[in-house]
Amino acid sequence: MRIGELAARTGVSVRALRYYEEQNLLASDRSAGGQRRYPESAVERVQWIQRLYGAGLPSRMVLELLPCVFTPGSDTGPSMLGKMMAERDRIDGKVADLVTTRDKLDGLIAAAREYIGEGSVAGPSPAAESRTGQPTRAHGGPSGGAGQP
């Protein structure tokens, strides 16, 4: 497949695919006209590259881990195992931080809902509901006028 099709199928820009090639993360053959050609397996490879980048891994680590993804056991010596475990631990730390942040945000949302519900003349809008099924205000903020609770 050509680079545009790979970009469309993976949701990755053509520029990013070229960057992946520069970093030796992705390989292509060239047609007689010099156009890049990718095998079907490139779709899954690009998806993995995106996942690893999304987890915050740098290019050099992605390059080291990709062989383990596509050929488990191939480069998995003690050194690589240690690197994979360290990355997993780093990701676990980020997940824990995100959960803490989400919990604090949930507290702020609950406080805002309580304030809006008590300080509003109109009260919460029954038509607007959050993902938890709790009523929310359609226009945010109290509707009692300037300076009124």
Automatic annotation (TrEMBL):
Key words of the record: DNA-binding
Region (Disordered): 119-149
GO molecular function: DNA binding; DNA-binding transcription factor activity
Keyword Cell cycle attached: no
Statement: the UniProt record of this protein carries the keyword DNA-binding: yes
UniProt superkingdom: Bacteria
Family annotation (CDD domains): HTH_MerR-like_sg3 (cd01282)
InterPro entries attached to this UniProt entry: DNA-bd_dom_put_sf, MerR-type_HTH_dom, MerR_fam
Record Pfam families: MerR_1
Domain HTH merR-type: 1-68
PANTHER family reported in the protein's UniProt record: MERR FAMILY REGULATORY PROTEIN, REDOX-CYCLING DRUG-SENSING TRANSCRIPTIONAL ACTIVATOR SOXR
Name of the protein in question: DNA-binding transcriptional regulator, MerR family
The organism of origin for this protein: Micromonospora mirobrigensis
